[in-house]
Amino acid sequence: MIEEEGIVVEVVGEYAKVSILKKSACEACAAAGVCHPQDADQSYMEAANPLGAIKGQKVKVVLAPQLYLKASLILYGIPMVALVAGAITAKNLAIQYSGETNSDLWAFIVGMACMVISFFFIRAYNNKVEKTQEYKPVIVEILS
């Protein structure tokens, strides 16, 4: 489990906005820009609040690591598969119907179009799951 500690800044319904402070270990980590992309000393995350934490409490927030893998596969894997599948299909169809002359151009155009279209599907999926708790971190412990 990926655990962070933070302070509840705001509570809205079932969710809490938690201020996550950078740890000293983050300074030497190569992936610090991924976990804490802002240059400021604080970053915020919205977390499910099943324990009923209130503003000002220090909490432990947990996110399952398999969600990072799943999100990465969705964000990078699907567009890559769409690009390659579209390019291969377009290349084969172009060779079959018009010969070798512009087959690479068609492969590029169709592959890129398929990749762009996949981003629209990913965006639609994101809008759907954004309303659920599937990808949200969860407050699992109130520390103070």
Describe this structure in words.
The chain is of the alpha+beta class and 144 residues long. It has two domains: 2-64 and 136-142, Nucleic acid-binding proteins (OB fold (Dihydrolipoamide Acetyltransferase, E2P), Beta Barrel), CATH 2.40.50; 66-129, no CATH class. It contains three helices and five strands. It has helices spanning 32-35, 65-98, 103-129; strands at residues 2-12, 15-21, 42-48, 58-63, 138-142. It has a five-stranded antiparallel β-sheet, with no helix packed on it. The two termini are 21 Å apart.
Task: Briefly characterize the structure.
It contains three helices and five strands. With 144 residues, the protein is of the alpha+beta class. Strands 3-2-1-4-5 form a five-stranded antiparallel sheet, with no helix packed on it.
Secondary-structure map with pairings?
Layout: E1 2-12, E2 15-21, H1 32-35, E3 42-48, E4 58-63, H2 65-98, H3 103-129, E5 138-142
- List how many beta strands DSSP finds: 5
Order of helices and strands: EEHEEHHE
What is the name of the CATH topology of the largest domain? OB fold (Dihydrolipoamide Acetyltransferase, E2P)
Number of domains: 2
What percentage of the residues does DSSP assign to strands (E)?
Answer: 25-35%
Q: Compute the gyration radius: what is it? A: 22 Å
**What's the end-to-end separation, in Å?**
21 Å
What structural category characterises the helix and strand content?
Answer: alpha+beta
**Helicity range:** 40-55%
Mean pLDDT: 84
What is the count of helical runs?
3
Strands of the largest sheet, in order across it?
3-2-1-4-5
General shape:
elongated
Low-pLDDT stretches: none
CATH top-level class of the largest domain: Mainly Beta
Largest beta sheet, briefly? Answer: 5 strands, antiparallel
Reported CATH architecture of the largest domain: Beta Barrel
Q: CATH H-level name of the largest domain... which superfamily?
A: Nucleic acid-binding proteins
